Amino acid sequence: MIYKFYRKIFELKDKASSKVRIWHLSLKYPNLKITGKTYIGKNCHIVCEDGGNMILQSAHINFGCFLHCSKNATLNIKSSYIGMYNVIVAAEKILITHSEIAEMVVIRDQNHNHNLSDTPISNQGFKSAPIIINKNVWIGAKSTILKGVEIGENSIIGAHSLVNRKFLKNSKIAGIPAKKIN
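Above: the chain sequence. Below: its structure as tokens.
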């Protein structure tokens, strides 16, 4: 019986630590809005550059996640579960609504420009396009979502998939690159 009491104590401690992290981030980044029953786990690295707009509304951000919202970008995560060690980087716009994302998923709305000139890749800039993940989407572990993707509601993305194009609602997709299955 003591183990249940012990676990409950640490659950309460973890929730309190999340509240402290939320308070700290809200003071550090005025354009970061954290509302509802949002939880932020340990060892998360969250950055909202000046001029960026990040909204975490009733989101569960598990430990070790990296969220970055660039200047003039929008990152909006609403009523969603973000698994451990996810990387979500918005240079333009990423919207995630009422979805479940497993561990080690990468979501980036930009790619490096690359031409065959003598200019280093790091100086060639980026191309970006919005990512929209609609309601009731499940993204399997270690998947990657690239710029310009919209995933329709009630869709499932298999583990280790590379999603580089739009998929309609009720899609089951998997593979590299991801294709509709079934």
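The two ends are 47 Å apart (CA to CA).
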